[in-house]
Amino acid sequence: MSKIGIASVLAVILFAASTMTAHAASRFPDMDGHWAESYIAQMRNAGVIQGINTPEGTFFYPNRNVSRAEFAAMLTRLLGIDPGRYSLAGNEFIDNAQIPGWARPYVAAMFQRGYITGRATPAGVRFDASSPITRAEAFTVLGRLLTGTPPDSVLHRFSDHEQIPGWARPEIARLVQAGLLTGTADGRLLPLNNITRAESAAILARLAPSLFSLPYTDVEMEEESPFELPELEDPAPPEEEYELPETDLPEIDPEPEPEEEIELEADSPPEE
Predict the structure, then answer these.
(1) The model's pTM
(2) C-alpha dihedral, 115 to 65 to 74 to 83, nearest 10°
């Protein structure tokens, strides 16, 4: 993945953040007043997320779950990776044939780069493209973008930290140490809940500047970032927004795939 691709995405995010008021009309109509509204606007205009077209208009549906295939697509776009350069060989997962055609390049890109693996089962490793991705899985995938080995104790700030699966703890600890995960208002992480579209947009928007600024990023870069990225506002979302374990610029042309099929996912397999 080239730094140029990431730089392009971050440039759009930066410009979007500075022009969101002027372009309020382009926001999804179902996002007015939502705690994640600014994050979603930034990710939409950066081309990372898309809306869902209906006869009444294009909506975001922030509380819907994100599938594993969708999450793979979101992360591929965030990293500026060209999915057209990747393809599945056919033996990566025992359910390869069930991965939708539109999602296969995204899944291949994330799998071959080591960010997304699969779910271990007695029969073999499955990708489960259409299954919702849990918060622990999504955070694990994003934690693989960072390096370092923070102590497990950084997770003890969450009252439900014992629910974090062992295979997910090192990567989630990296996100916590980087200040990218804060949990709910009452101090929980809810790792086993499914991640929603709003939550996915929020964590991706927080992560984007870190791809350049964090000293322990594991993303390959080719040049220094030319952008000075402002710190994103992090409105404290109401706890109910975390119920379940993925600006205004020219409109991004929707991809041929149905939007419902595209969202970020992470790995929950205790395969490692």
Answers:
(1) 0.73
(2) 80
